[in-house]
UniProtKB/TrEMBL annotation:
TM helices/strands, residue ranges: 12-30, 42-64, 76-95, 126-145
Keyword Membrane recorded: yes
EC number: 2.7.13.3
InterPro entries, alphabetized: Bact_2-comp_sensor_kinase, Sig_transdc_His_kin_internal
Lineage of origin: Bacteria, Pseudomonadati, Bacteroidota, Cytophagia, Cytophagales
Species whose genome carries this gene: Negadavirga shengliensis
Pfam families: His_kinase
The name this protein goes by in its record: Sensor histidine kinase
Annotated signal peptide: none
Gene Ontology molecular function: protein histidine kinase activity
Domain of life: Bacteria
Length: 357
């Protein structure tokens, strides 16, 4: 992604405005108010003063602030700034003496009086120092903002890389976990019904293509995720008897909205893992629907006596732990997950809501 050109343009605009303002102060405000014809030496001195202020601005921006202030050497930075201001003032004073500016300015304002050297006007020196520290302060502010922006961009990049690495790790854990359980199911079928086991392998191969190609992407289409869920449920049906009713409310088609791949599977898988028993009545209910761009997934399964645990314990499988972490990283506040096993129906309930907009 290309960086926006606007921050650089704004920085350039700040520089231009600072120096236009400084030039107005040095070349227009005071000279125009005097309403006299000033000698060329005065303009030379003003031009030199502006050039030196620009030098102070960029020397501080590229050397003093990065080398001292941002390295934690605040005391040294202040000492160098004060020392530089004194040297700056002394140089201007000596330059004015060298070009005889005090004498020339005397004859401009008092042409009929003889020139007698007088003590220097402290107010003028204070004005020069204020200009120096103004340039230094603006320079420090600009480079500080630039550093803050660069640090913030670096933090965002590092956080993005951390999240991407964590998501890759979580997906790498989910995929083997899914295949491990599914292969166990097909293996169980080989001793019962070879034909059904072969059909199961064909379905699994189609699901593997989805996992291999779609999970490499950050997002897949919701319709593909739905087909994957349907294949998985059909695969699970093959090993269950008719004594375990499965109620499905799945749409035939869904809008082509993007969704993180294999995000819904662990919730569906959890129903078959914890809600099926050969010794006790059990059932599975799965409902998935879309309202606008908000996806809802609801699953229900009977909490079996031998598997009666707290909701916290039921959530300790690798798939659910990783999926909840993925939900948090990818969707944050745009997702809501409610897990409940304390209800009159003795059901383990999952209610998931994801805003896919």
């Amino acid at each position: 992604m290309k960086a926006s050109p606007f921050p650089k343009k704004i920085t350039l605009l700040i520089h231009v405005l600072v120096w236009v303002l400084m030039a107005i102060v040095l070349f227009l405000l005071s000279p125009l108010s005097w309403k006299v014809e000033l000698p060329n030496e005065y303009w030379i001195k003003q031009g030199l003063l502006l050039a030196m202020l620009i030098g102070v601005f960029y020397f501080n921006m590229h050397v003093l602030a990065p080398k001292l202030l941002f390295k934690g050497k605040t005391g040294v930075f202040l000492l160098v700034a004060i020392g530089s201001s004194v040297c700056f003032l002394l140089f201007i004073q000596e330059f004015e003496k060298w070009i005889r500016l005090p004498e020339l300015m005397h004859y401009v304002f008092r042409p009929n009086e003889a020139y007698v050297p007088k003590p220097r006007n402290f107010t003028y020196d204070l004005f020069i120092l204020l200009l120096f520290f103004f340039a230094l302060g603006i320079s420090t502010s600009v480079v500080s903002v630039q550093k803050w922006q660069a640090d913030a961009a670096l933090r965002r990049q590092m956080e993005k890389e951390r999240v991407n690495s964590e998501l890759s790790y979580l997906k790498a854990q989910i995929n083997p976990h899914f295949f491990f359980n599914t292969l166990n199911n097909i293996y169980a079928l080989t001793t019962i019904d070879v034909d059904r086991a072969q059909k199961g392998l064909l379905k699994l191969s189609r699901m593997m293509r989805y996992v291999l190609y779609e999970t490499e992407k950050d997002k897949t289409l919701l319709s593909k995720e739905l087909e994957f869920i349907k294949d998985y449920i059909e695969l699970m049906r093959m090993r269950l008897s008719e004594k375990v009713p499965i109620e499905l409310d799945l749409p035939e088609r869904l809008s082509e909205l993007p969704i993180a791949p294999m995000l819904l599977l662990p919730f569906v898988e959890n129903c078959f893992k914890h809600g099926v028993s050969t010794n006790h009545p059990s059932y599975i209910k799965i409902r998935l629907f879309l309202q606008g761009k908000v996806l809802y997934l609801q699953t229900r399964n009977r909490i079996l006596p031998s598997k009666t645990r707290s909701a916290e314990d039921l959530d300790k499988g690798i798939g659910l732990i990783n999926t909840k972490r993925r939900l948090s990283l990818i969707y944050g506040d745009k997702s809501e997950l409610q897990l409940d096993n304390e209800n009159p129906d003795n059901e383990y309930r999952v209610d998931l809501k994801i805003d896919l907009s």
